[in-house]
Amino acid sequence: MRETRFTPDRGLTTRMVTTMFFIGLLYVVFVGALIVLLRGAWPVVLLLAGGVFVAQFWFSDRIAAYGMGAREVTAQEEPELHGAVDRLCALADMPKPRVAVADSDVPNAFATGRNSKNALVCATTGLLRRLEPEELEGVLAHELSHVAHRDVAVMTIASFLGVMAGIITRVGLWGGLRRAGGRDANTALLMVVIPLVSAVVYVISFLLTRLLSRYRELSADRAAALLTGRPSALASALTKVTGEMARIPTRDLRQAEPFNAFWFAPAFSKETLSGLLSSHPTLEQRLDQLAGISVRLGQG
Q: Could you tell me what the cofactor note in this record states (predicted)?
């Protein structure tokens, strides 16, 4: 892994390794359970599980970018955006990712990609209209730190487990029932057990990715503030983006909500139960951390 000037975070690395271990274990157990329950359809289950895993690893970042409406732009089309990314990449000593814009009034940004070679950083048109240059650089530094720390790749892969569980369950169940003929008592049991197993897998993977997501956002804020030396600019961007969310039509927010784990700020700012289901730490937590960094940099 190429080193950058972004501050390393051992806590984030530990959490990523732990999350991927349990996600991988969960996936293996899930596929094994389907093979046991659908003995007649095990070739279909294995083939589908392997195929979906490969497709997920190679194309999940593209699928996520497409789903969020990212359109790659040139330096001629968006000179200010490219200029900010160029400056930050030079400061961080990291390869420049592809740069994209999403045509959305929701003020936000995200990064995706398996590694730095095929990474993409995207800002929405709503964000570009609302932020000052220093604020925009703070947000972009936050997103570039996700690429440098590789947590964006972990989140992209891990977040698709629930989708895979649903696909494999439906296809495997369909194949198993066809082989069974749909007439014996075991068929009725399968109709109950398999969706239940799929639901359990989805809930566990959802909670694991949410725990990682909240920590990685704090880590990215910290790394961006230390790289740029302007935590106040990032704090201003956070405050402005969160405040502007209240003015965005609910329809637009709902379209962005499924990708909350990837956004710089969640599309809905309402608090969930004790933060357990939230993809991001609270605004207060993020601002408190940035205020502490400002104090330390001032003392330095």
A: Binds 1 zinc ion per subunit.
Mean pLDDT over residues 237-252, rounded? Answer: 88
Q: Which domain holds residue 56?
A: 10-299
For residue 34, pLDDT beyond 50? yes
User: Is there a binding annotation on residue 149?
Assistant: no
pTM for the whole structure = 0.84
Contact 164, 27 (CB under 8 A): yes
Task: Please report the pLDDT score of residue 4 as a whole number.
Answer: 83
**Is residue 273 situated within a structural domain?**
yes
Residue 142 annotated as binding site = yes
d(CA 140, CA 148): 12
CA distance 118 to 101: 16
Domain-embedded: residue 137: yes
Examine residue 1 and state whether it is found in any structural domain, yes or no: no
Catalytic residues: 143
Tell me: the pLDDT tens digits for 193-208?
Answer: 767 777 777 778 788 8
